[in-house]
Amino acid sequence: MLNQTACGSGDLSELCRNHLPEFYLAAQYFVEGLHIQELAREAPLGRLSDRERDCLSWAATGRTTKEIADILHLADDTVNEYFTSAMRKLGAGNRTQAVVRAYVLNQIAP
């Protein structure tokens, strides 16, 4: 959080120059939040299949593809297909983003 100590007695342009990386990161998080809210409005409940949710839930605990495949009695390639499908449905670029979006959209439990 920016306060008087962080800002000093400088003007706004100096503040922006000194904290540009933080502002950029905050803007990225803000835009991602807006995107997730849009997904929540458009996405009907139950959008992910049970197996997609299972895979994302296990991934959220840090399990690898191989471990998830063993737990769910599936082939590794099948688990990867579930991840790919879930990522596509959630508009995610990677598994971590898919897990976060599924959580925010109440598709998986914490």
UniProtKB/TrEMBL annotation:
GO terms for biological process: regulation of DNA-templated transcription. SUPFAM superfamilies: C-terminal effector domain of the bipartite response regulators (SSF46894). Pfam families: GerE. Keywords: DNA-binding, Transcription, Transcription regulation. It comes from the Bacteria. Signal peptide: none annotated. InterPro entries: Sig_transdc_resp-reg_C-effctor, Tscrpt_reg_LuxR_C, WH-like_DNA-bd_sf. Coiled coil: none annotated. This is Helix-turn-helix transcriptional regulator. It comes from Sulfitobacter aestuariivivens. Residues 41-106 form the HTH luxR-type domain. GO terms for molecular function: DNA binding.
